[in-house]
Structure to design on (175 residues):
């Protein structure tokens, strides 16, 4: 299996997507909760909550994506308000580490993620081309991003965590 590149080692193309790609990128973003559900479907709660050392469990990955919906809402507002810089993320992921997702029911966490993601998707659905082309500085990457670039970035982040979950599913079910 190919090793997944650590998230903070990744770089992202900015300014390369045409505005007309926005509906497709949004569709990808919209589908993350369903793809997460498919990855844990049929697995026992023990496997969904199983950790490999200090690495997050599959459920903790879903919880992390849920936690980031709040940042997504803040950054969406940043673009709407024409802020120069996007809101800063907690790079230590304290919220996820403190949430105790493994003590929760997987379906409940997933349902909360579905609802939060749909709330954000509804806002994206209402945008026009001028909104999607707006630019703000991404604080960690230190580069300006159009809203479409930021949506692509978030979709890549989602897929990074889904790939980690698939890797775990493969490992846990092969034993």
């Amino acid at each position: 299996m190919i090793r997944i590149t650590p998230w903070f080692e990744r770089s992202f193309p900015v300014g390369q997507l045409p505005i007309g790609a926005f509906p497709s990128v949004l569709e990808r973003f919209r589908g993350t909760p369903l793809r997460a559900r498919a990855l844990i479907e049929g697995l026992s709660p023990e496997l969904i909550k199983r950790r490999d050392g200090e690495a997050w469990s599959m459920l903790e990955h879903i919880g992390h994506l849920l936690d980031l919906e709040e940042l997504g809402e803040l950054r969406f507002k940043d673009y709407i308000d024409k802020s120069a810089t996007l809101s800063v993320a907690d790079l230590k992921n304290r919220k996820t580490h403190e949430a105790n997702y493994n003590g929760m029911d997987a379906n409940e966490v997933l349902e909360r993620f579905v609802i939060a993601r749909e709330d954000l998707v509804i806002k994206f659905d209402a945008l026009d081309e001028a909104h999607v082309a707006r630019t703000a500085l991404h604080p960690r990457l230190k580069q300006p991003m159009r809203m479409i670039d930021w949506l692509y970035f978030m979709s890549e982040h989602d897929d990074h965590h889904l790939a980690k979950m698939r890797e775990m599913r493969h490992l846990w079910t092969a034993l």
